[in-house]
């Protein structure tokens, strides 16, 4: 008989991990403060961004960042009142942008993407959910040759790691893939193998339903304490639960739980904003990314979702939905004919480490605890691969890739 395992977190990483552990014969219970797919797993763009191997902290990023950070409605925003609190994270972000850390980060991200792509396709096939995948590619759009040339090293980097792409240098070539774009977009990069989900919330709910049908347990419970090396879980309602092994996949709240075990992990929130529009808003043929403006337009269900950007503002500040409005206004300019009425606004918390890599591995101070969090905007993309790695760790089997870049104690030293 397998071990009793508690997974904290019912987002896409937590539910995928619970399913993977269940498939290995373990008795799994999932605890979440809000329920299944109640946070970032519900409102994201539904993109399986396996081509996105570059970290946010790139060499030279600090030359651009001040301009972005000083614009409260720009693609990267930091409210001044939050600056003192996030300063240590920003220093580590700066260090991660140095060439040595950047190169290591790209290699680690690419390795995890390679594993995650196959794991995700295997999961969809194994659960009979292939019909939820949209194979419609992705366009990254540039306004003029200067923007395009500045992006070429990034495309070459993707290609060196096996990403298939095409470069387009005319509005006509772009229109063959996505008609109806504003004429300012003269160049693009196209990834034909890009995949989107029909709806990320529906995906997680489907996985959760299969997990429960196979004997898994999901409970709404807020974890307030960990004891006995993580094998005793204390909840806000006064209840206690014991387990042989604990897995922490609690998204943007994970570092609070890790601190209960003596681990200080620099986790911040990339707060993302979007607006979901009803059916008929625009005839979108492919996932469209505007990299110099920090947002995307994508299909969600029968409608569209316009969203993105990064607001570094923690968990407690009220949402600034003017950011959603700005993105929608830009989208209407870039996609003439876009119907912007009837939309629903949303803000979510992406859990992010300064080097853009997740924390995957054993808790340094608790041998019966495994961490799996901090994926930033790539939680959905890397969920199945992370689940496979966690299951191997719980089973004490060799992992399919070197976990050193993702270890929890990598932040103990600055240099």
Describe this structure in words.
- This protein has a domain of 182 residues: D-Amino Acid Oxidase, subunit A, domain 2 (D-Amino Acid Oxidase, Chain A, domain 2), CATH 3.30.9.
- It is built from 11 helices and 21 strands.
- With 415 residues, it is an alpha/beta fold.
- The longest helix is centred in the first third of the chain and has 28 residues.
- Strand 16 and strand 17 form a beta hairpin.
- Helix 1 runs parallel beside helix 8.
- It is globular and about 60 Å long.
- The strands form 4 sheets. Strands 4, 6, 7, 8, 15, 16, 17, 18 and 19 form a 9-stranded mixed beta sheet that branches.
CATH-derived architecture of the domain at 62-97 and 133-195 and 268-350: 2-Layer Sandwich
Q: Label the overall shape.
A: globular
- The unreliable regions are none
Q: What is the CATH class of the domain at 62-97 and 133-195 and 268-350?
A: Alpha Beta
CATH H-level superfamily of the domain at 62-97 and 133-195 and 268-350: D-Amino Acid Oxidase, subunit A, domain 2
Radius of gyration, whole Å? 21 Å
Distance between the termini: 45 Å
- The pLDDT mean sits at 96
Sketch the major β-sheet: 9 strands, mixed
Considering DSSP H and I runs of 4 or more, what fraction of the residues is helical?
25-40%
Total helical segments: 11
* Structural class by SSE content: alpha/beta
Query: CATH topology of the domain at 62-97 and 133-195 and 268-350, which one?
Result: D-Amino Acid Oxidase, Chain A, domain 2
Number of strands: 21
Strand fraction: 25-35%
Enzyme class: oxidoreductase
Protein name: D-amino acid dehydrogenase small subunit
Organism: Thalassovita autumnalis
GO cellular component, one term: cytoplasm
């Amino acid at each position: 008989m397998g071990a009793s395992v508690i997974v904290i977190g019912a987002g896409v990483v937590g539910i995928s991990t619970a399913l993977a552990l269940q498939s290995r014969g373990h008795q799994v219970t999932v605890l979440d403060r809000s329920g299944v797919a109640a946070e970032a797993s519900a409102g994201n763009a539904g993109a399986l961004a396996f081509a996105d191997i570059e970290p946010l902290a790139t060499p030279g990023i600090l030359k651009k960042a001040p301009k972005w950070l000083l614009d409260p409605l720009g693609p990267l925003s930091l409210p001044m009142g939050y600056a003192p609190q996030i300063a240590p994270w920003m220093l580590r972000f700066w260090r991660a942008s140095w060439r040595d850390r950047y190169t290591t980060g790209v290699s680690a991200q690419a390795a995890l993407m390679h594993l995650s792509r196959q794991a995700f396709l295997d999961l969809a096939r194994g659960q009979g959910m292939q019909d939820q995948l949209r194979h419609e590619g992705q366009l990254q759009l540039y306004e003029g040759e200067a923007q395009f040339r500045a992006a070429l090293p990034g495309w070459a980097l993707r290609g060196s790691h096996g990403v298939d792409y095409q470069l387009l240098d005319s509005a006509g070539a772009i229109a063959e893939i996505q008609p109806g774009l504003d004429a300012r977009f003269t160049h693009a990069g196209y990834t034909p193998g890009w995949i989107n989900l029909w709806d990320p919330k529906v995906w997680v709910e489907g996985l959760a339903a299969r997990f429960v049908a196979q004997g898994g347990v999901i409970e709404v419970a807020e974890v307030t304490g960990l004891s006995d090396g993580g094998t005793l879980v204390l909840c806000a309602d006064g209840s206690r639960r014991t387990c042989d092994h604990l897995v922490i996949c609690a998204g943007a709240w994970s570092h609070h739980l890790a601190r209960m075990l003596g681990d200080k992990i620099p986790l911040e929130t990339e707060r993302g904003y979007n607006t979901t529009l009803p059916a008929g808003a625009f005839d979108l043929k492919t996932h469209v990314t505007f990299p110099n403006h920090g947002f995307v337009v994508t299909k969600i269900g029968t409608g569209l979702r316009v969203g993105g950007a990064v607001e570094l503002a923690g968990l407690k500040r009220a949402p600034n939905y003017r950011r959603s409005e700005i993105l929608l206004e830009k989208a209407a300019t870039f996609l003439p004919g876009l119907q912007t009425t009837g939309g629903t606004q949303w803000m979510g918390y992406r859990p992010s480490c300064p080097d853009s890599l997740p924390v995957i591995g054993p808790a340094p101070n608790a041998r019966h605890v495994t961490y799996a969090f901090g994926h930033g905007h790539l939680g959905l993309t890397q969920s199945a691969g992370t689940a496979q790695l966690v299951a191997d760790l719980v089973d004490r089997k060799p992992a399919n890739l070197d976990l050193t870049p993702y270890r929890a104690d990598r932040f103990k030293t600055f240099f």
